[in-house]
Specification:
Blueprint lengths: L22 H21 L2 H9 L10 H12 L2 E4 L6 H9 L2 E4 L17 H8 L6 H16 L3 H16 L2 E4 L2 E4 L2 H4 L2 H8 L4 E4 L2 H5 L11 E5 L2 H17 L1
Parallel strand pairs: 1-2, 3-6, 5-6
Antiparallel strand pairs: 3-4
The protein binds fe (ii) ion (FE2).
């Protein structure tokens, strides 16, 4: 399927210079993965774990974004596309609509393993990208981007941002009689994941109206999160949000 060239996102596209990563940086990646492994193996949803294998992540090496894209493209049409950093909404949504996931190439240093204020390649790839191998999630994310790309109203964008936050970033799912995690913010953070496992936060059944009415808190542990039953539920939710907030 031919895709339109990117316009808003074009200034942010960069190359990943894989050969420039140092042994120290590969070592930091390995340590980050090693720290997250026990919780992720026990609490990540099965679609995430399958995706991790499909995209060919290696526990002890930083990921090559082009190799990942080569594995994803035939499966769901997604690519991991290197960008220079945080993107404005218009550019971000344009890329999601084109099935390109804006992916940072920098990696946190050893003295900030648990927390960084802006996403790095660990958050983006370890946290987000395995889910892009799952067809329903992949279609959901593309559709989300396409909808947001059409919206100019800041209040509607904020409400749609809550849908992103409580799914892509902090989504939970009921599986095998347990709460499992699929959102990047929970997958990639020990504190947030522990907060979910130890019931530090309230876990509600996913309900679009409640999600759209729940403001996002970015600078504290999450107090209320939402668990889906399956990924079709969020695909339907994004279409419902479109009918409710955008199309009318
Ligand atoms: Fe994220």
């Amino acid at each position: 399927m031919p895709t339109e060239p990117l316009v808003a996102a074009a200034p942010y596209l960069i190359e990943q210079k894989y050969q420039d990563y140092t042994p120290e940086q590969h070592g930091v990646w390995a340590e980050l993965v090693c720290r997250r492994r026990p919780q992720v193996d026990a609490y990540a949803c099965r679609e995430y774990l399958e995706g991790y294998e499909i995209i060919g992540l290696q526990d002890d090496r930083l990921p090559n974004l082009y190799s990942i894209a080569d594995r994803l493209r035939p499966r769901t049409g997604w690519a991991t596309t290197p960008v220079s950093g945080f993107l404005p909404g218009e550019a971000f949504f344009e890329m999601l609509a084109a099935r390109m996931f804006p992916t940072t190439t920098w990696l946190r240093s050893r003295d900030s393993l648990e927390y960084i204020p802006e996403p790095d390649i660990f958050h983006d790839v370890f946290g987000h990208v395995p889910m892009h191998a799952h067809r329903v999630f992949a279609d959901f994310l593309q559709h989300y981007g396409a909808i947001c790309a059409r919206v100019k109203d800041a209040d509607i964008l904020e409400r749609l941002g809550r849908l992103f936050w409580y799914t892509v970033e902090f989504g939970l799912i009921r599986q095998d009689g347990m709460i499992k995690v699929y959102g990047s913010g929970v997958i990639s953070s020990h504190k947030e994941c522990t907060n979910v496992i130890e019931k530090g936060c309230q876990i509600r059944d996913f309900d679009l109206e409640e999600v759209l009415a729940t403001p996002v808190k970015v600078d504290e542990l999450q107090k209320k999160l939402f668990a889906i039953e399956n990924f079709e539920q969020i695909y339907e939710a994004v279409q419902q949000a479109e009918r409710q907030l955008v199309a009318g």
